[in-house]
Amino acid sequence: QVQLVESGGGLVQAGGSLRLSCAASGPTFSIYAMGWFRQAPGKEREFVAAVSGSGGSTYYPDSVKGRFTISRDNAKNTAYLQMNSLKPEDTAVYLCAAKRASVGSTWYGPWYEYGYWGQGTQVTVSS
After folding, report:
1. Residue 88 pairs with which residues in a beta bridge?
2. Of 44, 8, 25, 41, nearest to 123 (Cα)?
3. Residues contacting residue 105 through CB under 8 Å, at least 6 positions apart
4. How far apart are CA 18 and CA 63, in angstroms?
5. Measured between alpha carbons, how far is residue 95 from residues 32, 37, 79, 114 in Å?
């Protein structure tokens, strides 16, 4: 079992930055790929970023590539999402999730291959 707790959300002006953290419980954090997703009201859950268990591989969709950076510190059982050049359309609840890399056809999966989820943290970007 993995429990995830996000923090770091808040209100920021367009062009600003935020750093989200995802603290995980359990001694086997490094065996899980970690992903960040977001969901805005009335919209589907969107993939934001993923990092492999070792931290050596990352994945980003085009919508955030170059602005967001995912990382992890396995010694601290924590994953991070650095978000720069934020836009109003980045406003959403941001959720972190954990996935065994062996599940599914790719290590970063789609959202339904992630078995563990946090409660989410709200990010609001004002124009």
Report:
1. none
2. 8
3. none
4. 17
5. 16, 5, 11, 11
In whole angstroms, what separates CA 79 from the centre of its chain?
8
Cα torsion for 101, 75, 118, 98, to the nearest 10°?
0
- Tens digits of per-residue pLDDT, 53-78? 999 999 999 999 999 999 999 999 99
**Rounded-to-integer distance, Cα 115 and Cα 65, Å:** 25
Pairing of strands 92-100, 32-39: antiparallel
The pLDDT mean for the chain works out to 95
Q: How confident is the model at residue 105 (pLDDT cuts 50, 70, 90)?
A: confident
- Reported as half-sphere exposure (CB side, CA atoms, 13 A), residue 110 has a value of 4
Confidence of residue 26 (pLDDT cuts 50, 70, 90): confident
**Residue whose C-alpha is closest to residue 121's, from 93, 96, 84, 82:** 93
